[in-house]
Amino acid sequence: MATFNLNINGKKQQVEVDPATPILWVLRDHLNLVGTKYGCGIAQCGSCTILVGDIAMRSCMLPVSQIGNQAVTTIEGLSEDGDHPVQKAWLEHDVPQCGYCQAGQIMNAVALLKANPKPSDEEIDGAMNGNICRCGTYVRIKAAIKAAV
Amino acid sequence: MTIVKTTYNRRSFLQTTVLAGGGMMLGFSWLASCNPTPEEVLNMPKEWFNINGFLKIGENGVVTIMSPNPEIGQNVKTSMPMIIAEELDVDWKNVVVEQAPLNTDIFTRQLAGGSQSIRQGWQSLRMAGATARHMLREAAAQQWQVPVAEITTAAGMLYHKKSGKSIGYGEVASAAAKIPVPEEVQLKDAKDFKIIGTSRKNVDGKKIVTGQPLFGLDYKVEGMLIAMIAHPPAFGMKLKSVDDSAAKAMPGIKDVFTVNVYNEGYEKQWSDTTAFDELVVVVGNTTWEVMNAKKALRIEWERTSAAENTEGYMAKMAALTAKPATQLRKDGNPEAAFKSAAKVIERTYTAPFLPHNTMEPMNFFAHVTADKAELVGPIQTPEFMEKTVAARLGLPLEKIDIQMTRQGGGFGRRLYGHFVVEAAVISQKMNAPIKLVYTREDDMTQGIYRPAYHVTYRAALDADNKLIGFHIRGGGIQDSPVHADRFPAGAIDNYLAEDWTLDSNISTGAWRAPGSNFIAGAEQSFLDEVAEAMGKDPIEFRLELFDRAKKNPVGKNNDYEAARYAGVLELVREKSGWGKNDPAGVHRGVSAYYCHNSYVAQVIDMVLENGKPVIQKVHCAVDCGIVVNPDAAINLVEGGIVDGIGHALYSTLTFKDGAAEQSNFDKYRLIRHSEAPKAIEVHFVNNGIDPTGLGEPLNPPIIGALANAMYKATGKRVYDQPFLAGGQVLG
Ligand code: FES
Ligand code: FES
After folding, report:
1. Interatomic CA distance for residues B165 and B711, integer angstroms
2. CB count, 10 Å around CB of B104?
3. Which of A21, A76, A134 sits opposite B670 (nearest CB)?
4. Sequence ranges of chain A with CATH classification 3.10.20.30
5. ipTM surpassing 0.85, yes or no?
6. In whole angstroms, how far apart are CA A149 and each of A118, A140, B370?
7. Is B688 left (phi over 0), alpha (psi -120 to 50) or beta?
8. Fold of A2-78
9. In chain A, what's the furthest Cα-to-Cα distance?
10. Tens digits of per-residue pLDDT, B584-608?
11. Alpha-helix residue ranges (DSSP H) falling in B497-552
């Protein structure tokens, strides 16, 4: 057990956990931020994607001890009221079906658009390929990413 | 003009009351009405007459629809309230949809949303809305002392044209609640629909994109512990011994013990399917701690039945398909037709086991105390699982309360609720609220899989290249995919359908469009080959068969309407420009199928890039009756197509020594962004028929269109799913 001072969604949070604990479980079990989802636990599905700084990371294999004082953003911290451009584009295109994978999809799309505000179809495919959706919402996700400005 | 009765055998489907703070509340039965199918109503469980949907009209005119239906991804939580709002004649802006509140006994029963929901709810939801509207009109007529027939409505307002009077619903809602419920009400004509047929956004959209707690895995209460299970590493094994000393000593761990899912001698219902009865349970404070402790268990397992291998059951299935099986249907004289045939085409198709892989793994919350059990989570069969839990815990049925959360995908997996029982038993043993969480590995290796299937088709052509005989024989693991009365039965004079099933210790069950998810692709590939052998265009060939089935059907009980079948095929032909405007350099495959009450035809446009199939476009025509929420319906169509293509191309679960060889997404392949079709164009047949579902009918036929396009692209037919098992290069 060790104490970590984290910067989550612009708020200082202190947790006392095993240093190896993936930040996914710190968020979900300790900080009650359940928007970040568990899908595979081995960095293969993208459901747990968060931003560390401006970079999309798989939180399920990222030990809390490696976060340091970097700013972490989760789906809950993307905007006050769901009005981040990517969230708005997702609503406009009515993307979700079951919705479970969508937090991860959105966070990865946010990181992509920060790095590349006008991605081509191929660039979208390349960046989003690790985010699996069993409901098959890929066509809409691509349209939403292109529309998000 | 449709008039529906609000009572059946003197039992009313509706109840009204004045809201405590003013306004009207109408309670209704979400899926029960007596029109148009009284037999179905008669066969419904008694509870379905009970009130489980509510419509509130507040004095401020806000309409709240409380839906007992959880959302599983098929948009029922939006589209079903739209139907009520339509008949009520209110502005959708003023409608709030709420999920039934947890921990209340107002709602007698929650129902799982499936692709049949829209079909079953269509009449009852319309009736509820129309009744409330009628009572509001009565109330206004009384207030204004004018005949009710002169009262019209629009967007939540009541009007009396002659006197120029108008009033909002909210203002007469309290008075309307005191009007007796009419015995029958008139429904709107489809041409007057203002909400049905217009696209409305998912009512939970904002909660999803902002990460609100909606799913079972998100549910928590104060003092809740986390539980995980260890199950045998292979089918046909059971627990021998467990050394839990290391696990128990780990931080945050509360207890390790074994549980039996069902009591000895318990007679399982269909929804109780599971292959593993005795499980090792680890309970602790947090998910990570429990995950680690689970890895520290030292467990010995022992074999109780044969270890199955993929090659082994494939060989067994082939042997069964090679010999006569149970005859399901015979028309004419198929033996003679094949004997006299100038040419016989025979092809065999196979498909592997598939896990459901809902993105949200199985999980359930349970809090069992001495006299009651409170259970919360994603389950499609709460009414069945309440019985099982009651039997397992030894509590009366009315003390078991199962509440449903939003479900991170279902696809049939959450019909089988062994994990609900497991959660209940663990909570009882711990005497604490617990949430049982399956890891992805648990979820994928302890599946209720789509059965592996095997089928052989044969077609007899005479010397003039006419199709004179058709034979299908096939089966699967614990389930047969053969539907003897489906097309092309009814269109061919000499027809024989046979099937078999093969037992296994591997658990299998329903998986998005059961049976159809395999047989549609096999049949539609085979018909493509037959058309080619006959020198016919594949669409023309199918249309000729439909024409025959329409004008002069062979046999009885043909399980399709040939005209609607032909309708979708003609529509997709027109919209894709098939045979007229075929895009240059593009390989096209076509398919059409009817299952789960909806007709679907699809054309795939494929090119090969570096030996990989790239689907440039899918053209899709759907006849699912009236489309309630078109954009949401298109989303479902797109999803079904992507899902069908993905599983047919990439997905397989193989077994070695009884164990699944793929346990997570590092080895198991689901389709990814870059592999989805670049575009999907959807066209609905506009025929005013009552709506049917879209969750299941889309993924079956696309497999046929895919196989047929792959043949055009490569010159080679594909018969065994997944078509790209080893990621091979084509062309
Ligand atoms: S849960 Fe982290 S990538 Fe799947
Ligand atoms: S929306 Fe269901 S998994 Fe993506």
Report:
1. 68
2. 9
3. A134
4. 2-78
5. yes
6. 9, 16, 56
7. left
8. Ubiquitin-like (UB roll) (3.10.20)
9. 45
10. 999 999 999 999 999 999 999 999 9
11. 516-533, 538-551
B287 close to B224: Cβ distance less than 8 angstroms: no
pLDDT at B44 over 50: no
B206 and A30 within 8 Å at the Cβ level: the answer is no
Residue of chain B whose Cα is closest to the Cα of A100: B408
Residues of B in contact with A81 (CB under 8 A): 210
Across the interface, whether the CB atoms of A97 and B73 are under 8 A apart is answered yes
Residues of chain A with CATH 1.10.150.120: 85-148
Burial B169-202 (b: 16+ CB within 10 A, else e): bbbbbbbbbebebbeebebbeeeebebbbeebbb
| CA proximity to B15, closest of B178, B202, B162, B207 | B178
How many CA atoms are closer than 13 Å to the CA of B626, on its beta-carbon side? 21
Percent of chain B at pLDDT exceeding 70: 93
Cross-chain residue pair B642–A37, CB shorter than 8 Å? no
Class of domain B216-304+362-437: alpha beta
Tell me: the pLDDT tens digits for A26-64? Answer: 999 999 999 999 999 999 999 999 999 999 999 999 999
Give yes or no for a contact between B595 and B659, defined as CB atoms under 8 angstroms apart: no
Q: How far apart are CA B530 and CA B334, in angstroms?
A: 17
3-state SS assignment for residue B553 = coil
| Closest C-alpha to A23, from A9, A6, A40 | A6
pLDDT digits (tens, 9 = 90+) for A66-82: 999 999 999 999 998 99
- When the pLDDT of each residue in chain B is averaged and rounded to a whole number, the result is 92
Whole-number Å distance between alpha carbons of B297 and B294:
5
Quick check: helix, strand or coil at residue A134? coil
- pLDDT at residue B708, as a whole number: 98
Name every chain B residue with its beta carbon within 8 A of the beta carbon of A18: 251, 288-289
Exposed/middle/buried for residue B165 (C-beta within 10 Å: 0-12, 13-18, 19+)? middle
Q: What is the CATH number of domain A85-148?
A: 1.10.150.120
Show me where the domains of chain B are located: 2-209, 216-304+362-437, 324-353+449-727
Q: Is A27 in the pocket of ligand 1 (CB under 6 A)?
A: no
Phi-psi region of B325 (alpha: psi -120 to 50; beta: other; left: phi over 0): beta
CATH node for B2-209:
3.30.365.10
Q: What are phi and psi of B364, to 5 degrees?
A: -160, 145
A39 Cβ inside 6 Å of ligand 1: yes
In the DSSP assignment, the letter for residue A102 is H
Q: Is B208 helix (H, G, I), strand (E, B) or coil?
A: helix
User: What stretches of B564-677 adopt beta strand conformation (E)?
Assistant: 587-595, 598-609, 612-623, 655-656, 659-660
Q: Which two tokens stand for residue B108?
A: 């007698």
**Fold: same for B216-304+362-437 and B324-353+449-727:** yes
Which tokens belong to A64?
């809390």
**Torsion angles phi and psi, residue B83, rounded to 5:** -65, -40
The CATH code of domain B324-353+449-727 reads 3.30.365.10
Chain B CB contacts of A91 below 8 Å: 201, 205-206, 209
Which distant-in-sequence residues (6+ apart) come within 8 Å of B310 by Cβ? B352, B654, B655, B656
